[in-house]
Amino acid sequence: xxxxxxxxxxxxxxxxxxxxxxxxxxxxxxxxxxxxxxxxxxxxxxxxxxxxxxxxxxxxxxxxxxxxxxxxxxxxxxxxxxxxxxxxxxxxxxxxxxxxxxxxxxxxxxxxxxxxxxxxxxxxxxxxxxxxxxxxxxxxxxxxxxxxxxxxxxxxxxxxxxxxxxxxxxxxxxxxxxxxxxxxxxxxxxxxxxxxxxxxxxxxxxxxxxxxxxxxxxxxxxxxxxxxxxxxxxxxxxxxxxxxxxxxxxxxxxxxxxxxxxxxxxxxxxxxxxxxxxxxxxxxxxxxxxxxxxxxxxxxxxxxxxxxxxxxxxxxxxxxxxxxxxxxxxxxxxxxxxxxxxxxxxxxxxxxxxxxxxxxxxxxxxxxxxxxxxxxxxxxxxxxxxxxxxxxxxxxxxxxxxxxxxxxxxxxxxxxxxxxxxxxxxxxxxxxxxxxx
Length: 437
Prior knowledge:
It contains 18 helices and no strands. It has 437 residues and is mainly α.
């Protein structure tokens, strides 16, 4: 192994193991891209729920249940994984659970709303829990100064996985449509393809990624302490006023982002009258744009600074919302969607980076845990707000999109109160001091 590469990795870690770790992002991205963003959400609203005014709310509610379950269970599962040396086994269970539940999404028929909601909640719970578990391997693989680079590799490979899944779905949809088939014929097949791609692509992870945690018996006190540590982290935040404000900022602007992600295909089909094939093509291109945004925005952030860069991103999100709301032609909507792609990649890069910048190194892991908690909370707020707005307005998806923009406005307002230099000084001052309350 070249010296430069070995200096980035912990002793005993090989490049193939890092690629095996990144392949899990490739594998699971098909689920969130195809099921949550591009295909099944629109199918659920239009076919399973029959375009009922409350259909978007039902979709958001199913996701909300899964995210709330992840929030409640994450400390317990994290504690169990830490002390039992079972991260890989738990990851295997969550992978099997998500694959089986995704395949089962091929079964619900029009009108079987509860069955479809249950499968969405189960599959998304396993997906989100698996995300947490695979992330826990990262510090075992990379040295501290290379964490960002190796994490970025995972993001990039993940976007590639989403693109591959969409291409496979698009090919299958076009094949079925060519012989006169409709969504009730091709969506079940797309779910099976997505599940199969997840299962096959994750094999390198389970074959090559090593479990390095030492197995120890789990004590009840350790389970309780996992939640106690979470409460302690929340109490410690009062010493980090700028980090606290930024985490609040994340809750709001990520709520807008999660609404766009979870309802993108629904809006494209209900407001813009796209069919499934055109929707998949749209999300496919947006994934490419998002990858470019994630890769390129780091350089912009380094040059302009964290706060200014994130503010510009939120302003761009607001511009995208207005364009999508007012779009009456497909060209204008495509333009808005690609702005969303650039903003999506940039937001993912910028938010995580600033949390790390404002956190003392000795407490970075727990504050990143709070960052994950903030993102999960936003994942509940955004889609639910969109769904309630559509329900109350008797199916007005344009109004729901416009209301989503309020989250970006609030996030921008909260961001203005963040003093990055002061927050950084606080992080440096309290590093190694325990940050005791």
